[in-house]
Amino acid sequence: MRPAPDVADLVGFAVEAERAGIDGVMVSEHVVLGPSADAAGRPENPRDYALPGNQDPASPWPSPIVLLSAVAAATSRIRLVAGAIISPLRHPLALAKDLATLDRLSGGRLVVQPTVSWHRDEYAALGVPFGQRGEILDEQLEVWAKAWGSSPVAHEGNHFSFGKMLMAVGSLRSFAHSPGRVRLVVCAVVAIAITAGAIYGSFYKVTSPTILAPWFALIVLVIGFASTFVTRARRSASSQLPDLTKSTA
Fold first, then answer.
1. What is the pTM of this model?
2. 246 domain residue, yes or no
3. pLDDT beyond 80 at 227
4. Average of per-residue pLDDT values in the chain
5. Coil, strand, or helix at residue 126?
6. What is the DSSP string of 200-223?
7. Is 15 part of a structural domain of the chain?
8. pLDDT for 28-46, tens place per residue?
9. CA distance 116 to 103
10. What pLDDT score does 192 carry?
11. Span 183-215, pLDDT tens digits
C-alpha cells in the first residue's frame, strides 16, 4: 500500500477532483488522539472505515480549516465540506470567525458539519468536559446564529457569556431562511439532529443506532423534514410582517 499522502498532495487531489466534475471534497478532523483511540483494535484492512475506538493514534489529521483554505485558493467551483468539525473544543466566536472568513474567501462554497465526536482523551487534553459536549454544541449553534446575523451580538448561557461584540467578517452567501450564515449540516442522534437541523441548519444528516427498525427510521425522517418545513414557513411568514415601529404617515 502507498503511504499516506502529504498535506500538499491533498490540495492537488482536490484540484483534480474539480477538473473531473466532482461536486465537493470533504475533510474530517481530530485535534489530538490519545492512546485509547485504538482500544477496540484496528481494522485488518487499513482501507476499511475506522470506527470509534478503531483509529490509529498516529494517523495524520491536518487542520481542516487551514487545509480547506488552501483548497479554496487552488480551486474555483468545488464545494468545501468541513465534515465533523468538533465544535465544543473551541470557543464559538473564534470558530464562527474562522468559518465565516473561509466562506467569504471561497466565494460561498463552504459547508460545515459540526459534531461532538467520541474521543474522551481529546476532550481531557483540551480541558473540555466530555459529558457536557452535547449541550455545549447546542449553545454554540445558538451563538453562531447570532454571530452570523446582525452585529453587535451578546449572549448569556451556561457555557459562554459575553456582552455586545462586533464581528467584522460576515459570510458571503445569503439564504432566505438563514441570512448571512454559513451552510450547516447538523449530524447527531435522531432527535437532536431534527431539532438542531430545523432551527439552525440549511439541511441535516441523521445518524441513528443500527438497532432502529427501518420503518421507525423512515417515520423519524418524515417528521424531521416536516419540522424543518414548518420552521422555515414560520420564518418566511414572520419576515413578511409589516414593521409596526416605522411610521406609515
1. 0.73
2. no
3. no
4. 77
5. helix
6. T-SEEEE---TTS-HHHHHHHHHH
7. yes
8. 999 999 999 999 998 888 7
9. 22
10. 43
11. 666 554 433 444 444 445 544 443 433 334 444
Tell me how many domains the chain contains.
Answer: 1
DSSP-based helix, strand, coil % in the chain, nearest 5 = 45, 15, 45
CB 152 within 8 A of CB 78: no
Mean pLDDT, to the nearest integer, of 87-98? Answer: 94
Q: What is the CATH number of the domain that holds 95?
A: 3.20.20.30
DSSP 21-77: T--EEEE---S---GGGGTT---SSTTS---TT---TT-----HHHHHHHHHHH-SS
Is 213 a domain residue?
A: no
- Quote the domain boundaries for residue 104: 7-173
User: Using an 8 Å Cβ cutoff, are 198 and 228 in contact?
Assistant: yes
**Cis before residue 152, ω within 30 degrees of 0?**
yes
Separation of alpha carbons 210 and 217, rounded Å: 10
88 touches 116 (CB < 8 A): yes
